[in-house]
User: Fold Phosphate ABC transporter ATP-binding protein (PhoT family) from Inmirania thermothiophila.
Amino acid sequence: MEQPTTMPALDLSGRAPAQAQDDAPPKVEVRDLNFHYGEFHALRGVSMVIRERRVTALIGASGCGKSTFLRCFNRMHDLVEGARYEGEIRLFPDDINIIDRRVDPITVRMRIGMVFQKPNPFPKSIYENVAYGLRIRGISRRRVLDERVERALRQAALWDEVKDRLHRSAFDLSGGQQQRLCIARALATEPEMLLLDEPTSALDPIATASIEELVTELRERLTILIVTHNMQQAARVSDYTAFMHLGELVEFGPTEEIFTRPREKRTEDYITGRFG
Ligand SMILES: Nc1ncnc2c1ncn2[C@@H]1O[C@H](COP(=O)(O)OP(=O)(O)OP(=O)(O)O)[C@@H](O)[C@H]1O
Assistant:
């Protein structure tokens, strides 16, 4: 695991003011979420509100349940034997409980996209990677596909780099470009929320910076939940930070407060690198 970096280098100067009076409506409300892998109780009574068009970072030591939590949001555990959810994850504005087995996981995944730690483009062309989800949704008219593929690639800040080689293999792209392609693929179906699971941990600093810039741009149009081991990254890109420990949510609040005035000693110890 990458060690958390220490506190002094955090630069919070360019950030929006603390959101103590944030008027963004809730996008998701997590209510007393418990999650079990068979006998193992991986998430313990997690409750939090994720606000619309805000970036919320999940931090905490390896194994504390960050990915488990993130994966609940697009029902990735459904096929894991013995996996069991309790509680609610209510998605607004329609107020549905997305972990209710009666809610179709495909519908949930259309509304909540996910990007993983390692770029994982399909063995297809750049164009077909982005068009994939659209084709699954029955869109086949060339003009519509062209338009939506271009829009998603522009939103992922990749269009200028790939517009002349759309039909080349996605594997010809660099790691950072592949990750932006995966983001474009997730954006093509116009989700309301994006889950990012350590999206830059396999990337170099330049590619990391471009993904962080992109996260800040995407925040204008959708809600983002990001898992990161990098404290600076959480401080740079997020509005809110949630600190988890052993399956519990220890502390949650505006990023600036969590990093400068944590209420809990465990949070302070973690962000100052005293444990992790
Ligand atoms: N499929 C599984 N079956 C059983 N236990 C699992 C499974 N996946 C994860 N776990 C356990 O659940 C706990 C939380 O794991 P999770 O991957 O969510 O942690 P994390 O905080 O994302 O860690 P990291 O930062 O290392 O990615 C760990 O103890 C892990 O061993």
